[in-house]
Write a structure and sequence with these properties.
With 629 residues, this protein is of the alpha+beta class. It contains 18 helices and 18 strands. The protein is elongated.
Length: 629
């Protein structure tokens, strides 16, 4: 046939052939094997506007051969009525339309439900316009008995017909269905957004609200959602979040009694007992008003999903998810729902974990407040009798009529009373700091002279213990604003600590101006501190077990108190130490007053002072020496 056409001896569009020639011609034309070759050969094309195959133009024959040979989905719309011809790869796109509603039919009949969208895209190249192109064309098509959401990348190109010069014979469509890709990526984005907010909520109710807000923004797969938290008694489910539906209606009751066997709404009780997903069909028959979501008709199906808690086999909530009326509920949809349930469970579990942690923290804080109040009350109760004891003891010791034997006993009582008063005052200081009632009175002080004076109180104790006391405190360029009582406690506590753990060598007290700060260093050549103990050194009541010292007694609050007092001055304290090589404490206090509470500069004290004389620290240190020479 092809040769006769080229020689001009026979015009195939004008002269009919006998049946045998027609069959041989079609077999020669459609050499590619496949279902569509057989169906095109078997179809009576004379009943279509294209006419018998032997009458087709050369352009149509060639294009059909290209389409059938391709393994990529192609569809050819030929002639003014856009008669449909397609290849094997295009068949899945048609679904149940193939072949009776598609092959040889006008395009407007094959795709009647979407012709208002794709018709203009085909018209454009057919009437001389540029080719049409769309990377993601969303269409609602009916190919499996229901209207479904589908996505395609399409390219529509004109096909010239050489037997009608200057005319376009048809339009070739190159089609790639991307429905699974688009929906999969969309679901990943939903899960990602939900995961991005999972750490924000602080309560289970807030977590449900966050889930509802995220799902409301991604409603193509979940047109509506209800999230019910299960009470601790496992008898009620309470609505804590909703998207796409108003709460407290027939479809969204605020509370569901799980013991109510007559409740005919959602099968939440069944989901709780079986801990498995429950599919609910016929929503429009079960409920009066089903929210439509983003589509023109409401969902027909919903899933009731159990949401597990962090405890094994225990449910935290139940989520009711409306399923898209434009998608088939298949394995992919089920996997997505399971992932969604897991993400919701993680969000609620994170919020409840935070909530439980907050409750524990509040309980500990309450215990700490009770402890602080106890220390404050006890300290006040102890101070009065101690003060009343110390007065008569000191008066008696000053009397010359006390025998030597009695004087020694009175010295022991006086020394231990001072020591007890020092401890009580430290506890009272702590309770005031904890309660936010510590009142400093900052004033300009010659810090070098004051520090040297405080350090000199320990000279006799150091000499008796065979230690050198080095005091290196040259005058600073300007006064430093400190609370004198607090600075006294800082220096004396550090000196007392150094004396306690130093058995030979020296204790050095140095003060320097370093840039905009006054820096006090307290160094010793004592036993040092193991590296793993350094992070806990300033913890209150922390004592290093097994540490060699002059006494095993102690409250464990001296260094902790020093740190709090330094903070009240806007300063910092650090420590460097190594076992067996001594320890150096560094206290840094800024110059000026910008870092201090302005109302406490030069302020008068309204609370009873808690400072004790340096003698108390020295007497305690001497007591550690015992009968040492």
């Amino acid at each position: 046939m092809s040769g006769n056409s080229h020689n001009g001896q026979e015009n195939s569009l004008q002269k009919p052939r006998d049946q045998d020639d027609s069959v041989q011609h079609s077999k020669f034309l459609f050499v590619s094997p496949g279902e569509m070759v057989e169906r095109i050969e078997a179809l009576d094309w004379s009943k279509t506007c294209l006419g018998p195959i032997e009458h087709w133009s050369q352009a149509l024959r060639t294009t059909v051969r290209i389409v059938l040979a391709s393994r990529f989905p192609h569809i050819l719309w030929w002639g003014p009525q856009y008669v449909t011809i397609y290849n094997d790869a295009y068949r899945p796109i048609l679904g149940k339309k193939h072949p009776d509603e598609a092959l040889g039919k006008p395009g407007s009949e094959c795709w009647s439900e979407i012709w208002h969208i794709i018709g203009p895209l085909i018209d454009q190249p057919f009437h001389g316009g540029p080719p049409s192109w769309d990377e993601d064309l969303c269409l609602e098509i009916r190919r499996h008995g229901f209207t479904e959401e589908s996505h395609f990348t399409i390219a529509y190109s004109p096909v010239p017909d050489e037997e009608a010069p200057g005319e376009i014979g048809g339009v070739l469509g190159t089609i790639h269905e991307i429905t699974e890709t688009v929906i999969g990526e969309r679901r990943i984005v939903l899960l990602r957004d939900l995961g991005a907010h999972s750490g924000e909520p602080k309560t289970a109710s807030e977590a449900c609200a966050v889930v509802a807000a995220v799902l409301a923004a991604h409603n193509r797969d979940i047109p509506f959602m209800l999230l019910y938290l299960i009470d601790s008694d496992k008898r009620h489910a309470r609505l804590a979040g909703s998207a796409g539906v108003l709460p407290d209606s027939r479809i969204s009751p605020s509370v569901i009694d799980l013991d109510d066997l007559d409740y005919s709404g959602w099968p939440i009780r069944e989901a709780v007992e079986s801990k498995t997903i429950q599919i609910v069909e016929g929503l429009t028959d079960r409920f009066e008003a089903v929210p439509p979501g983003p589509w023109s008709e409401p969902p027909h199906t919903a899933a009731v999903l159990p949401i597990f808690s962090s405890r094994p086999d225990e449910l935290a909530a139940v989520m009711i998810a409306g399923l898209s009326c434009r998608l088939k509920f298949d394995a992919h949809y089920g996997d997505f729902l399971n992932l969604l349930a897991m993400q919701v469970a993680a969000t609620i579990a994170s919020a409840r974990s935070y909530e439980e942690e907050r409750k524990r923290a509040e309980a500990l804080a309450e215990i700490d407040r009770a402890k602080t109040l106890f220390f404050s009350n006890v300290s006040h109760e102890f101070r009065t009798p101690l003060t009343l004891m110390l007065g008569p003891l000191e008066d008696t010791l000053e009397s010359a009529r006390v025998p030597a034997e009695e004087r020694e006993k009175l010295n022991v009582a006086h020394r231990n009373s001072l020591r007890l008063l020092k401890l009580v005052n430290s506890l009272l200081d702590f309770s005031r700091i904890e309660a936010g009632r510590a009142q400093a009175a900052y004033e300009p002080v010659d810090l070098a002279a004051f520090t040297a004076e405080l350090a000199s109180n320990f000279r006799s104790a150091c000499e008796r213990a065979g230690l050198r006391l080095v005091t290196d405190c040259p005058p600073l360029r300007e006064p430093v604003y400190v609370d004198r009582d607090m600075w006294e406690k800082i220096v004396l506590n550090l000196l007392s600590n150094a004396f306690k753990f130093t058995f030979e060598g020296e204790i050095a007290v140095r003060l320097r101006a370093i840039e905009d700060r006054a820096e006090l260093t307290m160094s010793d050549t004592g036993v040092g501190i193991a590296e793993h103990e350094l992070p806990r050194l300033f913890e209150r009541f922390h004592r290093i077990e097994g540490q060699k010292s002059r006494t095993f007694e102690g409250s464990g609050i001296g260094l902790a108190l020093v740190q709090e007092l330094v903070k009240l001055h806007g300063g910092t304290i650090g420590v460097e130490s190594a076992a067996g090589k001594g320890t150096t404490f560094t206290v840094s206090i800024p110059f000026g007053t910008a870092h201090l509470p302005q109302d406490r500069i030069g302020a008068e004290r309204t609370l009873a002072p808690t400072s004790v004389r340096a003698d108390a620290y020295v007497e305690e240190a001497l007591g550690w020496l015992g009968d040492e020479p």
